[in-house]
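ok trying this again, last paste got cut off
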Amino acid sequence: MTILVLNAGSSSLKYAAFDAALRCVAGGQAAGLGEGRSHAEAVAEALAALGGAPVSAIAHRIVHGGPSLTAAAEIDAATRALIEGAAPLAPLHNPPALAALDAAAAALPGARHVAVFDTAFHATNPEVARRYALPERPETAGLRRYGFHGISYSGLVRALPILSGAPLPRRLLACHLGAGASLCAILEGRSAATTMGYSPLDGLTMAGRAGALDPEAVLTLAERVGVPAARALLNGGAGLRGLAGTGDMRALLADPSPEAAFAVEHFCYWAVRHAGSMIAAMGGLDAVAFTGGIGERAAPIRSRIMTGLGWAGLAADAAANEAGGPRLHAAGSPVSAWIVPAEEEAEIARSAAALLAR
């Protein structure tokens, strides 16, 4: 059995093929979609890269499953309709995923299709963590915290015991730091709280997203520039890009300007501040894990965050951090710290294979 994983974004499509032993046998990325290239052409490119190998199943990363889709699901007409219904909650993510799904279904009508959701991992959050303090009315329907990066966190829970050689820590602060960034309080292997909410906009300072804002500030901005312009600013023109002109953390760390230094400080300050909230949700801290592009490769960012978590018992090993881990904590530290490489496509393939086996 070959499982083809499709991870579609608004302008790109990542793809990876896994054999029956869930070993990656092919992969790549098609970029520039929407600029003369379609998702259908990108799916054709992915299939061509397999060299004619038979594909029995295609697994799709779906960012938002809405309130109903809280576990991996085989895609039929009803499931597709629910994914499409959740598109307004993730307008940059669900529509491209559906375009890739439709193209793949047309190209391989005999294959089974599975949706794996970024929101699903956080379905274990208690209701008090998920519900906003809003009355139950038609106009507030669906306005609740969903959380994102769940595929990354699910893979981290699986991978950390293998990497560390020890059982999964009971109270784990997981830090998915990249262009999109969030934290997750993982208590006994399950999501107990997370920083993203109704959309991926909430929480940490990100490459182009503002992160947490006073709702009145959002309303005021919408009054000044209109809702479409406000949405575009908050989702793409804010965050690190809004503070220093670029969302590239590597460029910011190499830039000696005060604006770049402040943007880096803003990112780290709010990561530590939100970490305090996650630690409170778990009642303490046993371990920290970094993943994502920044989490895995930006030693100065990890260093600042770990220093900021010294109050929680974390003593970092500076040399190990500079060397790139995977162990980051000093000997005797009551709180351990690790780098766990993100393998989202592999986790999607595992989830799909488990579902199809059932």
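PB: full thing came through this time. Residues 202 and 213 are 8 Å apart (CA to CA).
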